[in-house]
HAD superfamily hydrolase (Amorphotheca resinae ATCC 22711), 245 residues
Amino acid sequence: MTKITTLLFDCDNTLVLSEELAFEACADLANEILESRNIPDRYTGPQLLNEFVGQNFRGMMVALKAKFKYEMSDEELESYVSKEEDKVIGKLKQSLRPCDGVDAELEKLAKSNKYQLSVVSSSALRRVKASVEKVGQDKYFDPNHIFSAATSLPEPTSKPNPAIYLHAMNVLGKTAEECVAVEDSKSGATAAFRAHIKTIGYTGSYEPEKQEQMREVLKNAGCVVIMNHWSEFESALKKIENDEV
């Protein structure tokens, strides 16, 4: 049996239903940039979400720049990154909800006292902390065990780069063998896989008609077990601990 000591949770659309709200704010800013370059294309929140799910805003801006072939200075990029953070946090503080069933599982995990619980996200640290605080999940996570690929690393990066997982394990003093990650996106699952962490894929935050497709995407990205609802988490974790997957 594998001794699992540490659980590493993605935040957006894994712990909290934040992606749709965040992408509304991102779309506003992306359209502002495109308009300022006289590029006629415009995005809605869902279109942006579909194209860039799992990426942080900085990663999205770099991808947009490459797609539409315009220039953007580092200073301008930084000003948009900080604008985006404020806009998104405003929306999250208004309307954020936890993913269905996650709080019951976090409560059980906290009571069991068997695992160290950590958040490993691509989003900015301020946004991640605002998210878990808004839904009352901050009581389950030591503030020093919340990691952001945009903020916690010497150089901002984004999943699917595994850097943030490697950094989190280094700070926590853990090996990949004793960790399990939970991810809802291809980029997140790929990052955990590249860090050699066994990963549970979560499809519950997707529309029902997209869940089957996401099962395959997450499997192909390296997830060893897939759950559709948080009520399946305990049995998913057991499969990993019993070396069944």
Notes: The two ends are 11 Å apart (CA to CA). The chain has two domains: 6-17+97-241, 19-95.
